[in-house]
Backbone:
């Protein structure tokens, strides 16, 4: 299914479609990472190992954050410049008091050494239920 911004969900951690989906809990946060690839990076290999390089395996092995699922999204629109090639979105249902646990996992994900030619921007977001359907339905945390 095509997603806003021209992305297609091509894989999920548990094999079940993740999108479209609302948060599992009101306290859920999403760890979202956008990946930009240089020319010549082998995308077939990346797609086969995405759970490792995206940090999804780290999130899944950290029970305290309540990892629910993660999805890998690939850009399918043509001609966009400075756009991400891949986006990974993972839901954490137990982010901890003051998001402490989620921030610790975010720092681990940010610390993953990526191969040459790949850059990433990772952040935490929370969906605001009262704003669903509006452009401002999420906040960066």
Residues:
């Amino acid at each position: 299914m095509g997603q806003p911004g021209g992305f297609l969900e091509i894989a999920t951690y548990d094999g079940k479609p993740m999108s479209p989906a609302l948060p599992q809990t009101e306290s859920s946060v999403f760890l979202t990472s956008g990946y930009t690839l240089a020319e010549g990076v082998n995308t077939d290999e990346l797609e086969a190992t995405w759970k490792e390089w995206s940090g999804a395996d780290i999130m899944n092995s950290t029970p305290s954050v309540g990892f629910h699922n993660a999805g890998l999204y690939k850009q399918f629109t043509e001609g966009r410049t400075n756009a991400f090639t891949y986006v990974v979105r993972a839901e954490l249902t137990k982010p901890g008091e003051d998001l402490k646990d989620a921030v610790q996992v975010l720092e681990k994900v940010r610390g993953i050494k990526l191969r040459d030619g790949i850059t990433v921007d990772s952040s935490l977001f929370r969906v605001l239920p009262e704003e669903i359907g509006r452009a401002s339905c999420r906040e960066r945390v």
Remarks:
- The two ends are 27 Å apart (CA to CA).
